[in-house]
Amino acid sequence: MEFYLSEGGIRAVLPYGELDISGNEEFGYRPFQLMMASVAGCSGSVFRKVLDKKRIEIDDMKISAEVERDAEQANKITAIHLHVVVKGVNLDPDQLEKSLEIARKNCSMVRTIEDSVKITERLEIISLSS
Question: What class of enzyme is it (predicted)?
């Protein structure tokens, strides 16, 4: 990865494209937003892979993320709360909960920060009619 000075922040040049990073949302994504996106994106991707391997079919998934920060410690992220909403037909709550636990154990972003940031997950299941 390469990073360059840009107007109001830093620009990352990545294989998929360019990413502008700034403490000011007018010039790019804020670093804490990227941290949350990394955790939610990794968790969701691994969760989906686990479901695929277990042949658990879902129709949709949405992840909402909330952050807690400590203003007295340079706005350090202290907690990230993930709310995972899964929609599908005939979903088994126990299988989904176990799959989410497996995903947590295999998400590199969660594993990297779990000793310094409290990460919680809440699963909501919306059953659709067949």
Answer: oxidoreductase
